[in-house]
Amino acid sequence: MCSAMYALSTLGGYVLTSVVLFKCPSLLHRRKKETFRSRHISHRGGAGENLENTMAAFKHAVELGTDMLELDCHMTKDGEVVVSHDKNLKRSTGVCANISELTYAELPPYLCKLDVSFQRECSCEGGDDKRIPLLREVFDAFPNTPVNIDIKVNNDTLIRKVSKLVTKYNREHLTNPRIPLLFSLQRVLFLVGLFYTGLLPFVPLREQFLEIPMPSIITKLKDPQTMTRRQRLMAWLADTLLMRKSLFNHLQARGIQVYVWVLNDEEDFKRAFDLGATGVMTDYPTKLKEFMERNCSS
After folding, report:
1. Which residues have C-beta within 8 Å of that of residue 213, sequence separation ≥ 6?
2. Distance between CA atoms of residues 161 and 211, nearest Å
3. What DSSP string runs through the chain?
4. Which residues on adjacent β-strands are paired with residue 75?
5. What is the dihedral of CA 170, 279, 283, 138, to 10 degrees?
6. Numbered ranges of CATH 3.20.20.190 in the chain
């Protein structure tokens, strides 16, 4: 009986302490300083309104007032850091070649029309700008705009080059390459484990940004008739585990921004902000801007 009472009191003390620290993390952790806060994030510059990852797309998004540009990087055969999503150019240019196999001068232009990856049966037709840009061109053109860099391949040379460019252009406070500031997939799983075991309030976190998908959007990207019961169950389970308002609020209280991607309709915009997401990443920056003007006071 005494052992059972001791175990119950210990468990009760742990649960109570966890709940208090979860609600008030500043009691244990110093809030991280935010150098910028992004609510409106343009995915690939706004791939639903201009050809993805082009200077035209980035310019359009910045002129709309986007808080952050999201883009993707690869390295050419001659060591240039270029802005492009795919390793292979077949989808975007029609030429079946890897970026790493071509010099920058040999890179073909984008096709006139590209599918929007996160909007089923939608495509975007571009204007005159079909050129694959250099990362340094983006830094030159938008010196004050935060940039979320997704380095698409595990290449130490590419990572070093991106880091050097960030330093060269004095963008350490504006640019978050996917090294070590964002949660990796393994760290996201670790975070979820901490959250559901009650350990999260006790553990220090080095990351400043949590960038996660909204799993429920998979039902909008695929034809529901082609999805198996298992796929639907997995999407529901992932969505239930990840999309937690209490988790988002706790992270924000610790100064960790939460970005949800890639959302392209008002229903999902509303859900993400209602859950407490700091920002939303979209292919349609105009649509998100209009939604925020109608619904978001800050």
Report:
1. 260, 261, 262
2. 23
3. -HHHHHHHHHHHHHHHHHHHHHH-GGGTSPPPPPS---SEEEETTTTTTS-TTSHHHHHHHHHHT-SEEEEEEEE-TTS-EEE-S-SBSHHHHS---BGGGS-GGGPPPPPSEEE-TTSTT-EEE--S--PPPBHHHHHHH-TTS-EEEEE-S--HHHHHHHHHHHHHTT-TTTB--TTTTBPPHHHHHHHHHHHHHT-GGGS----SEEEEE-GGGHHHHS-GGG--HHHHHHHHHHHHHH--HHHHHHHHHTT-EEEEE---SHHHHHHHHHTT-SEEEES-HHHHHHHHHHH---
4. 81
5. 0
6. 40-168
Q: Is residue 97 over pLDDT 60?
A: yes
142: tokens are 């938008």
Question: Is domain 40-168 classified as CATH 3.20.20.190?
Answer: yes
**Whole-angstrom distance, CA of residue 108 vs CA of residue 174:** 30
The pairing of strands 81-83 and 147-151 is unpaired
Cβ atoms within 10 Å of 11's Cβ, excluding its own: 10
Q: Is the pLDDT of residue 111 over 50?
A: yes
Quick one: tokens of 87?
Answer: 């390793």
- Give Cα separations from 55 to 90, 101, 107, 127, 265 (angstroms): 20, 23, 16, 11, 24
Q: Can you give the pTM of this predicted structure?
A: 0.92
For range 188-211, the mean pLDDT: 94
Task: Please say whether the beta carbons of 267 and 280 come within 8 A.
Answer: no
CA distances from 281 to 23, 59, 188, 202 (A): 27, 17, 18, 30
What's phi and psi for 72, nearest 5 deg?
Answer: -125, 145
What confidence score (pLDDT) does residue 4 get? 72
Q: Are 44 and 71 in contact (CB under 8 A)?
A: yes
